[in-house]
Amino acid sequence: MANQTDTLPMSAEPNPAARPWGFWATLGWTLLAFTVGLLVAGVVVTGLVRWDTSLSDYQFLFRNGNPIGSSVMLLSYGVLITVLVFAARCSGSSAAAYLGFVRPRGRYVLAGLLCVVFPLLLTFAHAMQFDASQFLNAHGFDRARAANGLIIHVMAVVVIGPVMEEIVFRGFLYRGLSATRIGIAGTVVITALVWALMHAGKGPAGIFDTAIHGIAWGWLRWYTGSIWVPIASHVANNGFSVLLILLGLYGWFG
Predict the structure, then answer these.
(1) CA-CA distances (angstroms) from residue 119 to 92, 208, 213, 224?
(2) By the 8 A CB rule, do 117 and 106 touch?
(3) Cβ atoms within 10 Å, residue 92
(4) Cα–Cα–Cα angle for 211, 32, 2, nearest 5°?
(5) How many Å apart are CA 125 and CA 203, to the nearest integer?
(6) What 8-state DSSP symbol labels residue 31?
(7) CA distance 188 to 164
(8) Mind listing the pLDDT tens digit for each residue in 135-164?
(9) Nearest residue to 116 via CA among 235, 254, 247
């Protein structure tokens, strides 16, 4: 059964969901969403391999930047979000309110937007060493350009990926977990750490950087009462990193 929302004044949000899912239900729905997304991707991949035998080695799935692999990934993202939207509706609330797609609280908007520059400055401090690859796989962009799939890869990294991740971690998980005993602070930290571990391929420095960003965006989610601000910050952050990679890719650096 779904739990009552957190009634603390500082956690109140515009049009809050009346009954967010509880701890285990929230985790269960999230796991189901990922599972369904992977199953649909698996069915599509199987169909592609049967249609084009040149894909039978399945290497396109493991080559970051491959247009076909990117398209399958985006389809999986769409299915995942659809399941979470359905779960939000099943809670008795509108999906928009449940996931945090509401207007940021007016008196906090300015301060919240100013905080958007924090992750950008953190990324810039590293990027000044022209090593943006520690945040994003630069080889993927080179491969995508060679396969005429640079646009879809950039869109996936800069827009679609960040939106999906924010809906999952600062949207659905935040809504359900923050109303439980772990509270808002615990939810912000836990979701940031889990999200960072999902980026283990970046190495220790990349994991640490991702965790810091996750905490910053979780704080923005609480502070503004809306998911729009962390989404905007995430998109801006990835966009800045991708810009540096593309400038290096086309010979502007060095």
Answers:
(1) 35, 12, 6, 16
(2) no
(3) 12
(4) 85
(5) 18
(6) H
(7) 17
(8) 556 667 777 776 777 888 889 889 999 999
(9) 235
What is the token pair recorded at 177? 């977990």
Q: Which residues of 197-223 are buried (b: 16+ CB within 10 A; e: fewer)?
A: eebeebeeebbebbbebbbbbbbbbbb
Q: Return the structure tokens found at 242.
A: 């991708």
Q: 179 burial class (0-12, 13-18, 19+ CB within 10 angstroms)?
A: buried
Q: How many residues does the chain have?
A: 254
Going by the DSSP 8-state scheme, the letter that residue 16 receives in this structure is -
Alpha helices for 91-202 (secondary structure H) = 95-99, 106-114, 117-127, 138-146, 150-155, 161-166, 174-178, 183-197
Distances from the Cα of 51 to the Cαs of 37, 47, 48, in angstroms? 21, 6, 5
**pLDDT tens-digit readout, 162-198:** 999 999 999 999 999 999 999 999 999 999 999 999 8
Structure tokens at 9: 């004044």
Structure tokens at 18: 């009346």
Confidence at residue 71, expressed as pLDDT on a 0 to 100 scale: 87
Global pTM value: 0.82
Of 139, 168, 170, 167, the C-alpha closest to 153 is 139
In a 3-state reduction of DSSP, which class is residue 9? helix
